[in-house]
Amino acid sequence: MQTYRLMTLNRYIAEEQQWHPEATGTFTRMMWDISLAAKLVSREVNKAGLVDILGETENENASGERIQKLDLYAQHRFARTLGRGGYLCVMASEEEADPIPVTDGYPTGPYVVVFDPLDGSSNIDVNVSLGTIFGIYRRVSEGEGPGTLADLLQPGSKLIAAGYVIYGSSTMLVYTSGNGVHGFTLDASLGEFLLSHPDIRMPERGSIYSVNEGNLSRFDPATRRYLAHLKEQAPADGRPYSLRYIGTLVADFHRTLLRGGIFLYPALRRSDGSFKPKLRLVYEANPIGFIAEQAGGRASTGRERILDLQPGELHERVPLIVGSRDDVAAYEAMVREHG
Ligand code: P6P
Prior knowledge:
- This protein has 339 residues and is α+β, with helices and mostly antiparallel strands.
- The chain contains 8 helices and 16 strands.
- It has helices at residues 9-17, 26-46, 69-83, 149-152, 221-231, 249-259, 281-294, 325-338, and strands at 56-60, 66-68, 88-93, 111-119, 130-138, 161-167, 171-176, 181-187, 192-197, 208-210, 242-243, 262-265, 268-269, 275-276, 298-300, 320-323.
- A 7-stranded mixed beta sheet has the order 3-4-5-6-7-8-9, with helices on both faces. A 5-stranded mixed beta sheet has the order 11-10-12-16-15, sandwiched between helices. A two-stranded antiparallel ribbon has the order 1-2.
- β7 and β8 (181-187) form a beta hairpin.
- α1 packs antiparallel against α2 (26-46), α2 packs antiparallel against α3 and α5 (221-231) crosses α8 (325-338).
- The protein binds 6-O-phosphono-alpha-D-fructofuranose (P6P).
- The site of 6-O-phosphono-alpha-D-fructofuranose has 8 residues, from loops.
């Protein structure tokens, strides 16, 4: 029987550092701090029903959505921990309209972090899985002072690391630094993330699709054709697929990463006939897309590779089609033919 060597996240990251002779330990410390913030958020998420940390504040985020108290806690925890680490020059969050500078009085560093501190917050008070998403870049702006918007608006192809935390039946941190995707499960009694899913590979094709079918009438024709195709009785071709939709990107993606299949959030038709996407490029689609590709999957708008997109503004939105290589390719073929 194969026995896994007990490997903590901190030890795993420290051991990965040895393969980067130029590493100074700064990246390692940053990942340690991200995992610390994740543990603190996990503790609050897991007791959210017990203390007055549910409900909405009077504030709104950059997208005009009401901020939940737990959102605010997660935002504060990640921004405060990362802002003082001495490894960042600038960061950006879904919860803040503008770039977030390093905390006053603390040193800057060579890295840039973009994050969604609490994804799926509309699910907070119904005890459904939530998540945190993060992406890490090297700075591109000159000098060693505060970072700039240009540091934050890099294409996803420039990401050097990305990950997510899923606060579900267990809390997991899944990340890649460009050498495959690795999953760590929190053992709260130890306070440690332990390696539970080394080198995650996404199946080349799945049998599950994940989309908000309630939006069917607002999808473009190619998307509607593709979904109809998945639902046809064609057992020899592995169809119909099953539908699974949680409504938290991190949770729907985590299942897709492990089981394969396809997650779709296409742009939705508006009353004036124009189409508007929902998910954000910088701190949702790009980190998720990097992880998907590192696990052998794909991430697309339906027409373009997500990681090739040049962000124009911090909170811009994109259609996100992500999952198994063959499933995303089949969707793209449908768009080419009927889009
Ligand atoms: P809908 C959560 O609010 C979120 O931003 C993503 O986590 C999730 O994939 C999506 O929105 C769900 O949106 O319109 O299906 O509720």
